[in-house]
């Protein structure tokens, strides 16, 4: 019988993470980040909030899963349950009129 290997497993509890206010109404909860810029984070957007800058993906693809609410990338709205891939070289302006929570992975 093969035994499971749990070496190197990392886990976090969202309620234990101190949020970083990116801008008014947008908070980031970093779940994991390495030394080359790959990361996984939860972003919470309050109603009518928007990043005040162009979010450019120069190094990695970005994967977004909409946990709740409606996310808008400046071009299209994505409802709860949507999965979006922004390939390396693309950009968008994350925002939400209704408010939303998203999971974002850069890799």
Q: Which descriptors would you attach to this protein?
A:
RmlC-like_jellyroll, 0% helix, Cupin domain-containing protein, ChrR-like_cupin_dom, 7-stranded antiparallel β-sheet, RmlC_Cupin_sf, two-stranded antiparallel ribbon, 107 residues
CATH superfamily: Jelly Rolls
Shape: globular
Rounded to an integer in angstroms, the radius of gyration calculated over CA atoms is 15 Å
> Which sequence of SSEs, written as H and E, runs from N to C?
EEEEEEEEEEE
Helix content: under 10%
Q: How far is the first residue's CA from the last residue's CA?
A: 34 Å
* Mean pLDDT reading: 96
Largest sheet: 7 strands, antiparallel
Estimate nothing, just give the exact number of structural domains.
1
CATH topology: Jelly Rolls
CATH class: Mainly Beta
Instruction: Please tell me the CATH architecture by its name.
Output: Sandwich
Low-confidence segments, given as residue ranges, are none
SS elements, strand count: 11
Structural class: mainly beta
Q: Please work out how many helical segments DSSP would assign.
A: 0
Query: Strand percentage, roughly?
Result: over 45%
